[in-house]
Amino acid sequence: MDTFSMITGTTLNRYQLDIPSCTASLDVEEFSGAEKLSELYYYTITFTSAEKNIDAAQLLSKPAMLTMGGGALQQLADCKRVHGVITTFRRVNRSEDQSTYQITLQPFLFLLDKQFRSHRFFVNKSVPEVVEQVLQEHHLHDWEYEFNLKQHYPRREQINQYQESDLAFIQRLLAEVGIFYFFTLQEEAQSEVVHFADAQRALMFDKTLPVNSPSGMSDSGAESIWGLNITHNVVEANVTTRDYNPRDAQSVLQSATADMTRGNGEGLTYGEVYHYKLRHRERGDKIDPQTETANFYARLDHERFLAHQTLITASSTAAWLAPAQVLTVTDSLPSTLPAPVQDPLLITGTGFTASRREALRVTLLAVPYSETLCWRPPLLPRPKVTGTMTARVTSAKANDIYAWQDASGLYRVKFDADREDKGQGQESMPVRLAKPYGGDVYGFHFPLIQGTEVAIAFHEGDPDRPYIAHALHDSRHVDPVTEKNSTRNVIRTPANNKLRMEDKRGEEHIKLSTEYGGKTQLNLGHNVDASRKLRGEGFELRTDSWGGIRAGKGIFITADSQTEAQGKVLDMAAVHSLLTQAVSQMESLSQAASAAKAQLLQYEQQQALMEEKLLALKQAVLLMSAPEGIALASGSHLQAVASENIYMTAGQNVELGAKKNITLAASEKISIFTETEGIEAIVAKGDLISQAQSGNIEVIAKQNISLTSTTEGMTFTAAKTLTFTCAGGAYIRLSGGNIELGCPGDIMMKQSKLLYSGPASMQSNIPELPDSGPQSMSFMLLDALGNAAPSTMKVSLFDSKSKEQIWSSAFNDGGSGCFEPPESENFHAIIGDDKWTSLFSYNDEHDIEDETDDDLDFDEHGPQYDGELNEQDKE
């Protein structure tokens, strides 16, 4: 169409309103409008119509077009078209001929403000991706919006929409990263297009207007600009920003001081701005920072401040003026314009007013255009989350019975408010669990399992910074403590590992248990079964599997009373008294044995054991005490082993009994001594055998010795000589087949008969005694930590007198093996050959448990002599 009048038909109005959904004829009376960078434009249009009652349904939310004409009235040119949707409609007045109406025309994006969401969660998306998703959900075609971005924007772990409309949400996101937007008209579709940009290259250049103030009421139809006003403001001099990333806690996420004037603003700017905002995870390069880093945000913030340093306003008749245009104002030479407007200007806002009576007037707001400084939209406040949100712990594995965490121990959750389907285990960013105590690989952490209800809180109320504040029980996940057991304090894991503390007065108890091995429990106090019936009092340590009690410095087990734990842990007064009494008894018996020339008791060693080891657990010993008795019972065997001595002392009796045999064996000697009552050896059945296989048997009595066979005879046998003597000098000797009787006095024979015959003899039954042979011995070589000598180490033994080698071999697990000792009591041992290696010099800075060969110190030595070994060193 060549002229605007061809569009308007019969009217000569410069301004045309076209609403396809309305059939009535409309005539624009007046309008006003405003357009700004990163804001929605709006036009308030008043029009008249012969249709006196236009239905609102024909207008609201319907598309409309406002066309502004320019030039001579008879040949109007199409200067500007504004497309949008009608957002408000009202009837102003009515006359006999017509009605007056008023509408507001705004872009389609305005309708996004009517879609409100209290909660929405975007995971693993960038800001442009979120904005595009929202636009597409509102059915915008890809040609109705355009992203012209210079920077690459990373995907954020989570972006939350909270108590915001869709419009407010995307406006806030865009402003945070410095993306501005503006509108243009798509010529072919005659519809608005929204452009998103972050750099100057997206602006519209090559726009020019001359300075020319209108004369009177006429501008002669020429487009011009006038009324240029400049406002200068003092703005902030620089910006520093800082953040903290718990996943990179050692890094300092503080930006360099950002001054986007490069020092040229000195005297015109003032003040340092410091932001601590939870929004960046990296510091970024100082000169060319990556997006959404500390240095990026610092530079962005300063560009926002500088956008208000110089503000220019003006008036014009050019209807085509629009935000995002770079305008050059021309003037006659030499120019009389102020310096700031002699260079190109970036239009940030325009205003339009016109009516049937008044020509179009355009006002504009601009800032100096710069190739190094980009205009940035002002920050919009982030909503603050008050309180907490409920969510469920999730897992990538369905019906997972274990916690699903990442390498840092973080969880994923599914918000109850989230109604969108997301990948299982990907419903949120990784979130931390708040705990009452924590530190470097220590702390307080009970893993949360899939389905557990949790309360999500937010750092400083920031909806994009969630964390798990605490866990909650619900009807599906019942609390372990309810009205049924309200006196109990319980910690229970999903596998029924449990710590239970009962506070019911008179029934207090503690139970620590696990299900492994059937049941393994430590029960303290008033112990009950599953039905709460008493099963015992005190304490119980039990398991259906193996058990072990180990204490490296010693164990003291006692039944001696210590009321209400008032005494010391190692209070041994009672056991000390018993041990001292036992040593005293042994000393008394030893003195009696000494008087009787019997084997002495080693009571000194028993006293040394008590004083140097047992009392106060000076060494690694096991000490047991009970005032009323100790019993050991076994269904099979009972073994007592000591590498040195076993001492048994009783204040009264020591009784040994066996259903079958009692065997006593000693490598050297068995000594039995009684002080007052004697020794009884009685065999109810069987034989009483006494042998000295390589020595003598002595039977001595101060009074009588009586040998009696009650039903059979007695036989005395000797391999060489059998001699009977008496204190008077008489004797009988049987030797070599002869009988010799001798006495200093008379031989008296009383008999009824005396019979003589020829020679006779009786064969003697001399039993053959076993030869026990020499005894063998061995020894162990250990370091101070108890580690055995290596098997490659050799040992050679030499008689200390003859210097002859007795035995030579390598160690086996620290043992020398058995060998026959020399006749002399002492011998020499040479350990090693030419050289041997000690593996027992540990570095004190390492735990022995963690030692490897790389951590050991090696020392080489020549042949080593351990000196003479006495009898106590022999095994």
Automatic annotation (TrEMBL):
DUF2345 domain ranges (all copies): 612-760
Coiled coil: 579-620
Stretch list, region Disordered: 843-875
Keywords, sorted A to Z: Coiled coil
Annotated Gp5/Type VI secretion system Vgr protein OB-fold domain residues: 404-472
The UniProt record lists the keyword Thylakoid: no
Domain Putative type VI secretion system Rhs element associated Vgr: 492-593
Acidic residues compositional bias, start-end: 846-858
Family stated for the protein in its record: Belongs to the VgrG protein family.
Protein name stated in the entry: Type VI secretion system Vgr family protein
Organism: Klebsiella variicola (strain 342) (Klebsiella pneumoniae)
